[in-house]
Amino acid sequence: MKYAASLRVLLLPTFVSLALLGLRLQQGAEEPFTALPEVAGAGVPLRRPAWAWQEASRSNGTAEPAARRHPLQPPYPYPYRFLLNEPHKCRDRTPFLVLLVVTEPWDTAGRHAVRQTWGNESGVPGASVLRLFLTGVHPVFGQPLQQVLQEESALHHDLLQQDFLDTYNNLTLKTLMGLEWVSKHCPNASYVVKADQDVFLNLGYLVRRLLQPQLPPKRDFMTGYVYRNTGPLRNKAYKWYVPPEVYPNETYPPYCGGPAYVLSGDLARKVYAVAQTLPLINMEDSFVGICLHALGVRVTDGPWGLFNMYKVAYDKCKFSRLVMVHHYSPKELLELWPHFQGPGPACPP
Hints:
Helices cover 30% and strands 16% of the residues. The protein is an alpha/beta fold. The protein has one domain (2-9, 62-341): Spore Coat Polysaccharide Biosynthesis Protein SpsA, Chain A. Strands 1-4-3-2-5-8-7-9 form an eight-stranded mixed beta sheet. β10 (307-308), α8 and β11 form a beta-alpha-beta unit. α1 packs antiparallel against α3 (142-156), α2 (108-116) packs parallel to α9 and α4 packs across α6 (265-275). Residues 1-11 and 13-61 have low confidence and may be disordered.
């Protein structure tokens, strides 16, 4: 029975891909909701943002009415409900690092590849790692996919899902779901890494080089590939389009690129808390930068070249000194990982 479920889970992307050929999804649909979530982090000191929306005040802690909200602005705070949850993961452990992996509901093959490679919870000697995948509800195949996701969840116990639509413009909601889970269910974790599924991630080097478990955990710490003096794209032709109604400023505060970044556990909780007070934007990584600005926290520039936003050709010695490389498919990860983990000639210092 277990193996039949696994086979169905791994074959599903093929069927869904065929069904999705030629499909174009609308991004601004309304999400279902039920009971109101708790709001964590009361008492966090905030800075007044340098910008302000010309919409009605959000001081009552509820999302803007749909008539006042731009279609690209996900409703938040909002009573999203966990459909899949693992609330007891930290009951008997305090992980050094919580790994939050952004995934799409249908991509079982991608999740399988991450579990077998850089997302292996036992892959970092001397550091306790907890892996969780973040997903929403498929805009078209939500109901038939739900049973498959429930079976996958029963097998691996590593899926988090809330009842918002899983679209590109709702990526911010996925990250906030992960930070909500950490804040409520694993608040003592030392660090949180948020990563996209299509990356190569070297958690061992990240832990040894930057996080150093032998030292006290850093406070108010965030690093990755840092963007400075960038601004929203106003051209509707881009998928990264952000209109002035959603974000009026011409530049974003400094932020870390979305494919992978790391936060100290205390800062992850503060970002979730301050997000309850700020107008959401549809660019996830930029929004986290906005949260840091409101908190008065600066991003930390790490050693140059550790986080690569572009694809770098695989080389074992080179990759052993990198934290992240973007644009690696599940097939590529499964092919290179045995070589990367295996014995080989010593790399030059």
